[in-house]
Amino acid sequence: MIYFLTVNYYSTSLVTQLISSIQASKTIPHKIVVVNNSPQDKSIHLLKSEFVLILESGANLGFGRACNLGLSWIYSQDNQAIVWLINPDTYIVESVLDKVDLFFKANSELSIVGTVIYTPNNKVWFAGGKFIPATGAILNQDYLTDSDAEYICCDWVSACSLLINLRIFPECPQFDSAYFLYYEDFDFCRRYANQGHLVAVTKQLTVIHSPSSITNKNIFRKIKHSTYSYLLTLERYTNKLFLVIRLVRLIIYAIILILLRPKVAFGKLYGVLLYLRRSFTILSNTVLVNLSFLTTKPTGITTYATNLFPHLHCLNPTLLTSHIANSNCYPVPRI
Questions:
Q1: Per-residue pLDDT tens digits for 186-215
Q2: In order of start, what are the domains of the chain with their CATH numbers?
Q3: DSSP 3-state assignment of 303?
Q4: pTM of the prediction?
């Protein structure tokens, strides 16, 4: 059984086009799962049918968390299924659906498979992803135009059109909820590749995509989320020096752009701010956990640790926990 999974965010007309392209192949058993990330958009429910399920997220969860909702439902129904994640602004070409089952029967070792993605002008938009850890470069790499291979293993593939072979996963695969939008597919691929799963791209399966037909509706939000997610990805998968250099360059470039392209500039600065705030929160939590551990031990620095807590509480009151409820804390002046 093939389950298509797409996320709706005020894009019912695009989802309608996608569903029509899928249902042109009526001979292949399939179901389409739409996670509605825009609860106010009631028109999406007009698409319900025997083959189309609408899952309400209750709010805009972001792309990754919305996909997790759909993946969990599909996994509970059939943990041997093939899941095809696909963007609403994408549609499949005729007869492609007929090839999916044959492809995975011949290549059952593959866990995550990307398809070749074309623009409406028949130009290759995506045909494989490459990652250079030393520099943090995340690249689109056309592995297939000059190749006759059935598939080619690569570092990552785009969630615009990505197939997951659930048979290989011992539990339901999930995106990292730290990503709201952008780079969640890269993290998904690298995380599972590091666990031994094979990631590949094939030109036997193709789709047509209209790039940024949804996200370009709000440039500020697009740049904000992409900047934050990019910095988070660099933190996880490249060296700290490159992360710092890239962070400084981003800030300088954003300041230069303020007068020329203010929406882009402030989107970048907001994304940097979100990343720094997250980093500070994690650091504060780590310090608090370490200090709370110290206060449970009869050491000479217990008094120092317990006196330091009120200062940290002033910096971020939401982080103070009851870890030291039984300790002797002494009042100190607020900063």
A1: 999 999 999 999 999 999 999 999 876 666
A2: 2-215 (3.90.550.60), 218-319 (no CATH)
A3: helix
A4: 0.83
